[in-house]
From TrEMBL, chain A:
This is U2 snRNP component prp10. The gene is PRP10. Residues 165-279 form the Splicing factor 3B subunit domain. It comes from Apiotrichum porosum. Residues 933-1010 form the Phosphatase PP2A regulatory subunit A/Splicing factor 3B subunit 1-like HEAT repeat domain. Belongs to the SF3B1 family. Residues 197-212 have a biased composition (Low complexity). One of its GO terms (biological process) is spliceosomal complex assembly. It is found in: Nucleus. InterPro entries: ARM-like, ARM-type_fold, HEAT_type_2, PP2A/SF3B1-like_HEAT, SF3b_su1, SF3b_su1-like. Pfam families: PPP2R1A-like_HEAT, SF3b1. Keywords: mRNA processing, mRNA splicing, Nucleus, Repeat, Spliceosome. GO terms for molecular function: mRNA binding. Coiled coil: none annotated. GO terms for cellular component: spliceosomal complex.
From TrEMBL, chain B:
Pfam families: SF3b10. It comes from the Eukaryota. GO terms for biological process: mRNA splicing, via spliceosome. InterPro entries: SF3b5/RDS3-10, Splicing_factor_3B_subunit_5. One of its GO terms (cellular component) is precatalytic spliceosome. Belongs to the SF3B5 family. This is Splicing factor subunit. It comes from Apiotrichum porosum.
Length: 1155, 86
């Protein structure tokens, strides 16, 4: 490449080289033009943002297709076969590689692109992308690699149709035989079969592709979609002369179309882009649905209901129930089984794509009918949907929910499908989304409970030594979930056996990984079984396979972490091998061993821990030098844990660890990687806790003036944490000067947008306390200077720093400095950048806080009028800071400002009630209370009551809250008359607002309501008999608070009256209304006593109408829950001679006894 | 069950599992009263002065009275009535 570059002539203008342009044009022709809209739509798809490793779920060939799981025997046989295949393949690749190496050494030109990753790396490292990806990468330059998964569907279409072959070069890897395809029939290995029936994955295209493959080379690069050619088969299989014959395909055999394969290639690009017309059922369905609706618009589909969207893939998948012949009216033509299928599909479509109400009823139906439908038909429909490539988060969530509900109903009927479900659900366990992982765990644990341990083990056993690392990994995680669902003891014998498997190292590896995952998922719940678990994996430390040793060490680390701080005795057996191990091993294994040691040491007794740490440290120090980032982090982690243990002495750390530690780790490079950064800070902080503040801070203070900002930041963060945790008493005068100097430098030079420097500054100054006094003038003048800087960010930071420093300046009695700052900040209130303005106001508020309203300079009477116009600022930060300052002034120094000014602010505050941020709204509401207290409630109240007339609900609600607060601060007698008067306004909103305000008032004033209960009974009579049910609901809320407030104060007559008014509402159906009514009745239990309420409830417990009984029993249950003991004297005496004759004695004789 | 199942009584099963003595629209008289008797008996055991009073009335020591009250909780109202087909 480099000599080509030299050949280019030097040009005066710069543009892309012609061949690059050609290349791009060619690419655009060849593949689909990358479409921005399409890219954006794809972000929602789960598959689009998953890593290559996670996408390997699409490569699983087992457990696909319809029908029940294969038998255990078949699966074991197949897994063994696959393993053998893999071995042969690796062997062949090794041979080819050797050959290539030989050829190279002889100086021949190698045809293959030399950008191919080295084969050894591809095989050895389990984490590499699937082989198909590598094969693809080998054939095309790396720049195009990104497009790999986009082109895939296109390729698959190539197999479908008879299109001419694209001009792509075939790489050697493409010719590799496809592997792991599923047999159509059990007990027959695929070698016995005719190529046509060979695999379900290519079933739709197998006849055309396989037979015509002689003339044209197969163009499908993805091995999963490619048929094996006859040539390949002939070379692989014994021929006719060996006594074998090719059997014709049975006539009644129809390959099962895998759903994913049915999606036309164009469909992925259908989102808003150009689309080819096709005449299939799917197209009709789409037409029927009114076109593709990527998002947003809802579609009404006959027989289905309202859908939120309909994707091309859905139209394809649900073609049977969409479009012509899909309606329920057509159902008469179908058999029972087909009907079931159609019903299930309809329900699934409703659940997946429907609007919430549609979805809800469909979900309920599918749950209720789960046993009727049967496990087979249900999972045959649900599981393929989950494997859809275009699946989005929401759809996945809903489908998983369906599985969960259905599982619960099917119970042990689910057994034949356990493996199928696992194949689909296991990938959720390694999803990046926390909730997906939780959902996956939930399903698997329910599955385990439904299917039983024996079945789970026999189902997952074949996957334990599966050839694919991905399958083993997910299986291990699933097993851990099973263990947590069914208990570790149940699984323990199996785990022991697996961990000692002689047959394959993969099984041992997976077994140990299961135990690691158990430790991770179950945490301290492993403690009772710790010894058993450790013993099960102990032998793994001396395994001949390096990967097994590594995994064992990792599992031990996880167990020790989960068990901390207990359980050291369980690790006795493994200490020695670990110990020998860290001396023998290098690289990854050593890292894992060190990790295990690092987690075990904190569990030990102090003297042992000290001994082990001393022994361990030379190795750690040796590894300080390593260039492996992972190893460096582990070493840091171990050092951190060692430093935290009791048995390690400060002098040991100072002498043995610190010098090397600082030399190796406190370098600029460490600040660049996020994880290194965090680990280093943590470790240094824990070292400081042991070795002392001055030891650490002394070594890094000078680095505060380093020229690299990330490094400065790391230093600052460390100093902050060290000083906050341990104080600054340790720091001597010289270092104090250096520290302040460094902190000021770092603050001034800051360009990054975060709070590290700011927090660091205030932490250091706060820690130094009174010792900072000599430096304050310098610091304040720095702030003053920076407050007038031309960069808004600098001004903002300076103001923020003022906020933090104000308490400390006050503490050092530098009031003059504060008033100077106050004045300058006041002058800066004209600031135009909202972020900076917000900070300035906050700083002013913080100064006002510490000096008090009376001493404040500028005086409050000047400051407040200046704030009034700023209240109109729409920026949240400004609003919050302003409202806080105003609230503070209203609270502490309201008398210094004229009442007129306060009224003006009241009006402005009404606008803030609409703010998005809750803190602002709360501050605004509280301010009303303060202002009302300062200037008397009348004016404020009238403002608020008038505001009840506005349209916005939020504003009205908050006004009612504010009214209640005013009532609380100024006494209810100031407000209740006004509210009662306002209630007479013939306007629904106002009346409702009044009721709400009253509810809040009674909630806030509590016992004080006893003086007002008779005054509001009239209003409640009116509102509880209103036609509007919201009215009654709110009235019930008033009754509730009122009742609880006056309970035990002797107002039973009024409460009984109110209960009689509330009672007729018990049959309301709207959830909020009935909730309010029930609350009021429950409050009556407190106010009137449970006996009275019981006498009401008894009337309806055995009402002939079930609808009535249900309500009454609900109330009875609430009574029982709340006051069962108090009810005893009130139970009715129901003993009767008839019952006695029948054998039941209902008389409570104990209550009739007397002395 | 009626539509209340989806609003008010969504977690009725859980409620019954967690708290004995709660009922539903199909609770029989026998079940209701058995629970009331048990409530009464446990209330007696839970209020030692009441228990003392009853033991005096019965002429038993308190421990025996307490034991008998607890024993009585097993089937406080006698055997359940025979099931009738409805």
């Amino acid at each position: 490449m480099s000599d080509e570059e030299d050949n280019y002539p030097q040009l005066a203008t710069y543009t892309a080289p012609q061949d690059v342009l050609d290349d791009h044009a060619e690419m655009a022709d060849e593949e689909d033009i990358p479409d921005e809209i399409q890219d954006r739509a794809r972000v929602k798809q789960i598959a689009a943002r998953q890593t290559g490793y996670q996408l390997r779920r699409f490569e699983r060939r087992d457990g696909m297709g319809e029908g029940e799981d294969e038998s255990y025997e078949d699966r074991m046989r197949r897994v063994n076969l696959e393993r053998e295949e893999e071995r042969v393949r690796q062997f062949k690749e090794q041979l080819a590689k050797d050959e290539a190496a030989k050829a190279e050494s002889e100086g021949r030109v190698i045809v293959d692109d030399d950008k191919t990753p080295p084969r050894a790396a591809a095989i050895d490292d389990d984490k590499t992308p699937p082989r198909a990806a590598i094969g693809e990468g080998a054939g095309s330059p790396p720049a195009r690699r990104r497009r790999w998964d986009e082109t895939e569907v296109k390729k698959e279409e190539d197999t479908n149709g008879e299109e001419p072959a694209p001009k792509k070069r075939r790489s050697r890897w493409d010719q590799m035989p496809a592997e792991g395809e599923e047999e159509a029939k059990p007990r027959k290995s695929r070698w016995d079969q005719a190529p046509e029936a060979g695999s379900s994955a290519v079933a739709t295209s197998s006849s055309s592709a396989a037979s015509s493959s002689d003339e044209k080379p197969s163009m499908v690069a993805d091995k999963r979609y490619r048929a094996i050619t006859d040539d390949e088969l002939n070379s692989l299989l014994p021929g006719t002369n060996d006594g074998y014959a090719v059997v014709p395909v049975p006539e009644d055999y129809h390959p099962q179309a895998a759903v994913r394969k049915m999606v036309p290639a164009t469909s992925q690009h259908a989102e808003g882009g150009f689309m080819m017309q096709d005449e299939g059922a799917a197209a009709r369905a789409v037409t029927a649905a009114g076109g593709f609706q990527g998002s947003g618009e809802q579609t009404e589909i006959e027989g289905i209901g309202t859908l939120q969207f309909l994707k091309a893939e859905d139209a394809q998948y649900f073609a049977k129930v969409l479009g012509e012949g899909g309606g329920e009216a057509e159902d008469v033509h179908y058999s029972m089984e087909e009907l079931k299928e159609r019903k299930i599909m309809r329900l699934l479509l409703k659940i997946k794509n429907g609007t919430p109400p549609v979805r809800k009823t469909a979900l309920r139906q599918i749950t209720d009918k789960a046993r009727e439908f049967g496990a087979g038909p249900l999972f045959d429909k649900i599981l393929p949907l989950l494997m859809e490539r275009s699946l989005e988060d929401q759809e996945r969530h809903l489908l998983v929910k369906v599985i969960d509900r259905v599982l619960y109903k099917l119970d042990d009927l689910v057994r034949p499908y356990v493996h199928k479900i696992l194949v689909v659900i296991e990938p959720l366990l390694i999803d990046e989304d926390y909730y997906a992982r939780v959902e996956g765990r939930e399903i698997i644990s329910n599955l385990a409970k439904a299917a039983g341990l024996a079945h789970m083990i026999s189902t997952m056993r074949p996957d334990i030594d599966h050839v694919d690392e991905y399958v083993r990994n997910t299986t291990a995680r699933a097993f851990a979930v099973v263990a947590s669902a069914l208990g570790i003891p149940a699984l323990l014998p199996f785990l022991k056996a697996v961990c000692r498997s002689k047959k394959s190292w993969q099984a041992r590896h997976t077994g140990i990984r299961i135990i690691q995952q158990i430790a991770v998922t179950m945490g301290c719940a492993v403690l009772p079984h710790l010894r058993n678990l450790v013993d099960a994996i102990a032998d793994g430390l001396q395994d001949e396979q390096q990967k097994v040793r590594t995994m064992t060490a990792l599992a031990l680390a996880a167990l020790a972490e989960a068990a901390a701080p207990y359980g050291i005795e369980s690790f006795d057996n493994v200490l020695k091998p670990l110990w020998i191990g860290i001396r023998q091993h290098r690289g990854k294994t050593l890292a894992a061993f060190l990790r295990a040691i690092g987690y075990i040491i904190p569990l030990m007794d102090p003297e042992y821990a000290g001994y082990y740490v001393r022994e361990c440290v030379p190795i750690l120090i040796r590894e300080f030098q390593t260039s492996d980032e992972e190893m460096r982090r582990i070493v840091l982690q171990v050092i951190k844990q060692c430093a935290g243990t009791e048995g390690v002495t400060p002098s040991f750390i100072r002498q043995e660890i610190l010098p090397e530690f600082f030399k190796a780790f406190w370098v600029r490079r460490m600040a660049l990687d996020r994880r290194n950064y965090r680990q280093l800070v943590e470790t240094t902080v824990s070292l400081a806790a042991k070795a002392g503040v001055s030891e650490i801070v002394g070594r890094i203070t000078n680095d505060l003036k380093d020229e690299s900002e990330p490094y400065r930041k790391m230093v600052m963060e460390t100093i902050t944490k060290v000083v906050t945790a341990n104080g600054a008493a340790d720091i001597d005068e010289r270092m104090e000067v250096l520290l302040i100097d460094g902190v000021i430098f770092a603050f001034q030079e800051q360009t990054m947008e975060d709070n590290v420097m700011l927090d660091g500054f205030s932490a250091v100054v706060a820690a130094l306390g009174s010792r900072v006094k000599p430096y304050l003038p310098q610091i304040v003048s720095m702030i003053l200077w920076r407050l007038t800087n031309k960069s808004a960010k600098v001004r903002m930071l300076a103001a923020d720093l003022t906020t933090k420093l104000a308490p400390i300046i006050k503490q050092n009695d530098e009031d003059a400095l504060l008033s100077k700052l106050g004045i300058v900040l006041f002058e800066q209130l004209g600031e135009e950048y909202p972020d900076a303005l917000g900070s300035i106001i906050a700083a002013e508020a913080s100064i006002a806080n510490v000096v008090g309203m009376t001493q404040m300079n500028p005086p409050v009477k000047d400051l407040l009028p200046r704030m009034t116009p700023i209240l109109r600022n729409r920026h949240e930060k400004v609003q919050e800071a302003t409202i806080n300052l105003i609230g503070r002034i209203a609270d502490r120094g309201a008398e210094q400002v004229a009442a007129k000014e306060w009224m003006r602010i009241c009006f402005e505050l009404l606008d803030l009630l609409k703010a998005h941020k809750k803190a602002i709204r709360r501050a605004a509401v509280n301010s009303f209370g303060y202002i009302a207290k300062a200037i008397g409630p009348q004016d404020v109240l009238s403002v608020l009551l008038t505001n009840l007339k506005v349209q916005e609900r939020q504003s009205r609600v908050l006004s009612t809250v504010a009214i209640a607060i005013v009532a609380e601060t100024c006494g209810p007698f100031t407000c209740i008359p006004a509210i009662l008067n306002e209630y007479r306004t013939p306007e629904l909103n106002v009346r409702n607002g009044c009721l709400k305000a009253l509810a809040y008032v009674f909630e806030y004033v509590g016992e004080m309501s006893k003086d007002y209960i008779h005054s509001v009974v009239g209003l409640l009579e009116d509102s509880l008999t209103d036609r509007d049910h919201v009215h009654r609901q709110t009235a019930c809320a008033i009754v509730k608070h009122l009742t609880v407030g006056v309970a035990g104060l002797g107002y039973e007559e009024a409460l009984t009256h109110l209960l009689n008014l509330v009672w007729p509402n018990i049959f309301e159906t709207s959830p909020h209304v009935i909730g309010g009514v029930m609350d009021a009745i429950e409050a009556m239990r407190i106010g009137l006593g449970p006996g009275v309420v019981l006498s009401y409830v008894l009337q309806g417990l055995y009402h002939p109408a079930r609808r009535v009984r249900e309500v009454y029993w609900r109330m009875y249950n609430t009574l029982i829950l709340g006051a069962v003991d108090a009810l005893v004297p009130f139970y009715p005496a129901l003993g009767s001679a008839a019952d006695l004759a029948n054998g039941q004695d209902y008389t409570r004789h104990h209550l009739l006894m007397f002395v | 069950m009626s539509e209340l199942r989806y609003t008010a009584n969504t977690s009725l099963e859980q409620l019954h599992a967690r708290y004995t003595g709660t009922g539903h629209a199909d609770t029989t008289k026998y079940e209701l009263l058995t629970n009331q008797h048990r409530d009464t008996l446990s209330s007696i055991v839970g209020h030692p002065p009441l228990l003392a009073y009853l033991s005096i009335a019965d002429g038993e020591c308190q421990a025996r009275e307490r034991f008998e009250v607890l024993e009585r909780m097993l089937q406080p109202c006698g055997v359940p009535p025979a099931k009738t087909d409805e």
